[in-house]
């Protein structure tokens, strides 16, 4: 590897692959001249697309495979039979050092399972976590875990906090991110044991972190807290519940503005403002979940996104490459380990 | 009690009590001539308000107390020291048979704790649950539990399904409500053990219920499933996350429409449509969570609502009074108990 960073891309993953993938790379390439690409997939399909994407073509190496992971394949199947697919090869290039990060819009479960198998979990961490970019009044928040795991104990929640905080700095460019633990009440007495224990652990173990305290569901969108920590079951349901509610509101608005001559006229006159509104709500702007905590960066793009969305996922991968994410996480993990050890010694002595 | 139903009301609970309470009763009374009220609170404050609410005054009995539950009181304190407060007395009137249902806009934790202490859990149920009315593409869904409990095992989830289904019939007037279990994947293999076991139990125990299967977070708003079942931690976070997202979208829209001359003009012309949009989003229309599974009906109104919202909470209480809720729940609970017993016998024999 030279100074030029390389992004490894699953050319065949996603509902609109490979067209959207190549178009997305071309958008990203325009603003990021110092990036090269390793593009994994069917060379016969990819070559004509690259002819129409000159910036990408000039900096992309195509690595051919005619195998790809289906959108319905279960994680266990993908792990057993996924070797040699475009997704597998995209991740493996990070392991071998041929690339600095991998991006795929393919099957989420398969991607997480393969990434964990190939790259392994970063030393000192129990579990990786999937982080989502959540639109808020203050821009965007990092919410994790949103589905890599089904549950999390107190120590794992603290690990998620450590990773989310470094992610917020790397990708959302927050200097000193505020970190909150998702709970059902802001009083210390409420909530699951593991959430309360995690709060105690964060306070006790001397992390370099702006810990905000407990937050409730509505605080994710409205409070200005930058990193929201929860288990993968709750986080996935919170994220999808909020997406559903936002789509419902958007649908109601659209119904209303199409409901008669005056509303159509009003909407037409206010169109620039409505377009600005839509832009703030644009899911493509927040596309790209990172699978945090592996020995390497893997970004999951939404399967149904378009070129703008895919370019954003690649941008997130590049932000991660340019950051000191792994080092920052390692420093705080050492503090956590020391505190856990001290606690264990204290318990053993008493 | 005569044929006329009586609603017992905490006159002093809520941010804008007692004014909003009396104004809300007056709105409800206009359309519901066959209801009487027991109004608990400070007679000196309530009397002048009733003079301005003639329909309520004609059918209300004021039961004086100068004690009330503060909004910051913890549930444990409320249970120890709550006796004789307006909230306590409102619930107790249901127990004595003086009233058919109780409504309060006061402290949620205190209301749940007192209601459970005074009315006790319905026979055959492990735990009561708090149900919320969630706006959806098909009107409204019942989501429970949204915070009465912190966790739920499989059997409790099935009990929530049974109560939610009867609630949907009673209050949302769905003939044959579709019931879904909230999970993080629609495949049978995903999710918490207790959720998968609950799905199995519903299928096995011969409930009279249209079971739909697993639903994900976005399905709550968008799928047309009428009853969504989950534990109180997840349900509370899903509900509040969705509320936060809806408020965020509303705020972005409002910002956009105020952002210049043309957008203001457009919004003015489209105002009737925007008002219809707002009406569909109006939180007052879905105000009133019922604390299900007690020996008596207790409805929690949002603390900050106005007269329209409070009237809606009273309407929900009246729907519950007129329904066969307790009988319907009892029938399905017997089927669940029989299935659980058969299962236990089978396990003991094997």
Write structural notes for this entry.
Two copies of one chain form a homodimer. Chain A has helices at 19-31, 43-51, 54-59, 75-81, 86-96, 108-119, 154-171, 193-204, 217-222, 232-257, 261-269, 271-281, 307-322, 325-349, and strands spanning 5-10, 35-41, 60-64, 101-104, 129-136, 139-144, 178-182, 210-215, 227-229, 289-292, 297-300. Chain A is an alpha/beta fold and 350 residues long. In chain A, strand 5 and strand 6 (139-144) form a beta hairpin. In chain A, helix 7 (154-171) runs antiparallel to helix 14. The model of chain A has no long low-confidence stretch (mean pLDDT 91). At the A-B interface, helix 9, helix 10, helix 11 and helix 12 of A face helix 9, helix 10, helix 11 and helix 12 of B.
Q: Biggest sheet of chain A, strands in spatial order?
A: 3-2-1-4-11-10-5-6-9-7-8
Q: Assign a percent range to the helix content of chain A.
A: 40-55%
Distance between the termini of chain A: 53 Å
Contiguous helical run count of chain A: 14
Instruction: Provide the β-strand percentage band of chain A.
Output: 15-25%
Q: What is the multimeric organization of the chains shown? A: homodimer
Low-confidence stretches of chain A: none
Q: Overall mean pLDDT score of chain A?
A: 91
Largest sheet report of chain A: 11 strands, mixed
Number of strands of chain A: 11
Structural class of chain A: alpha/beta
Order of helices and strands of chain A: EHEHHEHHEHEEHEHEHEHHHEEHH
Work out the largest interface and the residue count of each chain. A-B, 63 and 63 residues
Q: Cα-atom Rg of chain A, whole angstroms?
A: 21 Å
Cα shape of chain A = globular
